[in-house]
């Protein structure tokens, strides 16, 4: 029982990190229909930026803030300079963002080398918490990641469904010409969306660096899992991203615990089953 509960908690906290990454991707990919394959590189860059800032200033909060702003601004720059003129051409966008990902990965390898880094959490988030079941003491930092993901998810849902700006974003996705005809600058709105989506990847990297290591190859791993989460949950749905992350996190961790040789197969099998039953994803809208 203790092992099952521990694996379940691991699944929840891994799902929380997947959601932080995938929530940004579902805004960009699902709502703007921009295939941003540099999203994994943004995750790793956010982790490295946070590590450098924390190493220089001993401020964990400042590291998170700088990582969020840096990656968010880089995302906007990429969108406005490289993607704006071709954002309706999926293949060209995919190739350009792959190129950006490769350039970022190469520069991060030059700057930080091939070794793994880890971000030390603040004193208040260190140690363990006795959850009161089966004598399990669970890392306090992982619980923080879970709480943060829930808070981010609620904030995004309220922003998209209860604010005027969120309604403009959803309307702009469905019919940008009609929204532009009302005098709203759709380009500026989508630039904000790209900033928020990219900043969430940077935040996830900064937070994830305290729970897991930052190393070359992590960018590809998190890009892959975030794509699976978005596909399973349904493009453009924050609630779908949360459900998809939960399923992927639990399936991957229980598979690692009981069928380690089949862990990757089980994760992809989940995606295949969902697509076979509901091609638009669990919470996605029919095309």
From TrEMBL:
As for membrane topology, the entry says: Multi-pass membrane protein
Q: Which InterPro entries match?
A: ABC_transp_permease, BCAA_transport_permease
Give the record's family classification. Belongs to the binding-protein-dependent transport system permease family. LivHM subfamily.
Q: What Gene Ontology terms describe where this protein resides (cellular component)?
A: plasma membrane
Keywords of the record, alphabetical order, are: Amino-acid transport, Cell membrane, Membrane, Transmembrane, Transmembrane helix, Transport
Subcellular location(s): the record lists: Cell membrane
Write down a Pfam family by its short name: BPD_transp_2
GO molecular function terms here? transmembrane transporter activity
Biological process (GO) annotations? amino acid transport
- TM spans (from-to): 12-30, 37-54, 60-82, 94-120, 140-160, 188-212, 224-248, 255-277
Species source reads Haloactinopolyspora alba
Q: Per the record's keyword annotation, is Transmembrane included, yes or no? A: yes
User: Do you know which CDD domains this protein is assigned to?
Assistant: TM_PBP1_LivH_like
Q: What is this protein called?
A: Amino acid/amide ABC transporter membrane protein 1 (HAAT family)
């Amino acid at each position: 029982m203790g092992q099952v509960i521990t694996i379940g908690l691991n699944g929840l906290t891994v799902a929380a990190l997947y959601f932080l990454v995938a929530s940004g991707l579902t805004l960009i990919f699902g709502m703007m229909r921009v295939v941003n394959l540099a999203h994994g590189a943004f995750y790793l860059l956010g982790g490295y930026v946070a590590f450098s800032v924390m190493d220089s200033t001993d401020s964990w909060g400042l590291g998170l803030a700088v990582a969020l702003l840096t990656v968010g601004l880089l995302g906007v720059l990429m969108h406005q300079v490289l993607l704006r003129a071709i954002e309706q051409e999926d293949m060209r966008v995919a190739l350009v963002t792959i190129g950006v990902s490769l350039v970022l990965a190469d520069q991060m390898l030059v700057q930080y080398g091939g070794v793994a880094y880890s971000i030390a959490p603040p004193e208040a988030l260190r140690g363990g918490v006795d959850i009161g079941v089966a004598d399990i003491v669970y890392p306090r930092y992982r619980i923080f990641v879970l709480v943060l993901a829930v808070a981010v998810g609620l904030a995004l849902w309220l922003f998209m469904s209860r604010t005027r700006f969120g309604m403009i974003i959803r309307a702009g996705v469905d019919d940008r010409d009609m929204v532009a005809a009302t005098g709203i600058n759709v380009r500026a709105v989508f630039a904000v969306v790209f900033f928020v989506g990219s900043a969430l990847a940077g935040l996830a990297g900064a937070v994830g660096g305290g729970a897991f290591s930052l190393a070359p190859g992590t960018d590809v791993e998190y890009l892959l899992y975030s794509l699976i989460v978005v596909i399973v949950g349904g493009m453009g749905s924050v609630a779908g991203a949360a459900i998809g992350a939960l399923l992927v996190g639990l399936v991957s961790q229980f598979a690692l615990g009981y069928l380690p040789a089949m862990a990757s197969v089980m994760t992809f099998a989940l995606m295949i089953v969902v697509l076979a039953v509901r091609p638009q994803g669990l919470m996605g809208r029919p095309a």
